[in-house]
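In response to the reviewer comment on reproducibility (Comment 2.3), we provide here a single inverse folding case reported in full, input and output, so that an independent group could reproduce the run without further information from us. The structure tokens appear first.
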């Protein structure tokens, strides 16, 4: 099997490292900066004897090398700096996405595409429209990252293992995202039964701002360790047909009452990409929040 990762920057290269360590598929990393993907690929390859993986890791500036990919992960584009919103990246990243999609169409037209570049839901929508693939084959990574952030804050607050927390974040990957504390559990116990509403609200707020909190510390770019972990986990679910149920930005055609939009919803991920969109029962206030999030995404989509 083969995975291609477009963009060999912080997110792309770290994703390649994590994918190599899974040892399930060869990995090709593409970037426009000469020598950079080649150098990083050599570096990752030279860790293989220590880490014990046998897959090939290559770096290239030539899109022809993505031919025959089972899945292409798109991380090409600029990242946020302090004071920037994800939407501030739109004008630049939409052009890059268009170029990347043209290359995917030319060299590996049947691949599944997973977008990571921000603003995520708008970029995913653009990729879906550019490539015209069947709808389950284009989706975006964001909800699993936001959910992981939410889960990590819950586990820290409770002082329990990260493994015992399960939580979900829906909606657009931006300030309008919709963490669902009422659906969160700690070892099967509903979160609202074991945590005060005030603490839950504080954690929800921190989850929504988690990306900006990191940008504020880094100053020169945005998060990449947790994003790359989410990428590797989702790629694994596709390649190994694991059918994991995770939130992802999917093209909606009536689900949750929305049409012609990409938005974070729970999906089943397998060999065919998004194989099912799961429609949760939402309380009125949660559905209102999701409506507002869809509206925010739709307004950005209208700009492209
Ligand atoms: N083809 C291939 N690579 C490209 C192209 C292109 N047309 N245009 C830009 N790139 C590359 C850049 O050369 C750079 O190496 O994309 C890479 C982006 O890397 P970083 O600047 O380190 O950004 P990163 O932190 O990886 O974030 C990438 O993912 O999470 C999102 O918001 C984030 O939109 C951003 C994207």
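Designed residues, in position order:
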């Amino acid at each position: 099997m083969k995975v291609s990762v477009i963009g060999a920057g912080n997110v792309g290269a770290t994703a390649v490292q994590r994918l190599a360590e899974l040892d399930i598929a060869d990995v090709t990393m593409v970037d426009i900066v000469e020598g950079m993907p080649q150098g990083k690929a050599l570096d990752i390859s030279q860790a293989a004897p220590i880490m014990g993986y046998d897959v090939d890791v290559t770096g290239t500036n030539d899109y022809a090398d993505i031919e025959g990919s089972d899945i292409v992960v798109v991380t090409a584009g600029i990242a946020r700096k302090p004071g920037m919103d994800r939407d501030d990246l739109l004008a630049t990243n939409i052009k890059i996405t268009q170029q990347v999609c043209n290359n995917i169409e030319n060299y590996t037209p049947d691949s599944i595409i997973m977008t990571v570049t921000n603003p995520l839901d708008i970029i995913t929508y653009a990729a879906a429209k550019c490539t015209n693939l069947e709808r389950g084959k284009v989706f975006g990574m964001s909800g699993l990252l936001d959910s992981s952030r939410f889960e990590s804050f819950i586990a820290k607050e409770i002082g329990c293992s990260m493994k015992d927390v399960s939580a979900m974040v829906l909606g657009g990957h931006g300030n309008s995202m919709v963490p669902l504390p009422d659906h969160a559990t700690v070892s099967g116990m509903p979160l609202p039964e074991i945590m005060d509403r005030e603490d839950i609200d504080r954690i929800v707020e921190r989850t929504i701002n988690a990306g900006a909190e990191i940008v504020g510390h880094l100053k020169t770019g945005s998060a990449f360790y947790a994003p790359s972990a989410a990428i590797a986990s989702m790629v694994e679910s596709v390649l190994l047909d694991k059918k994991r149920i995770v939130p992802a930005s999917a093209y909606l055609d009536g689900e949750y009452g929305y049409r012609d939009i990409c938005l974070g919803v729970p999906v089943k991920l397998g060999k065919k990409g998004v194989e099912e969109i799961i429609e949760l029962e939402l309380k009125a206030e949660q559905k209102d929040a999701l409506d507002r999030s869809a509206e925010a995404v739709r307004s950005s989509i209208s700009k492209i």
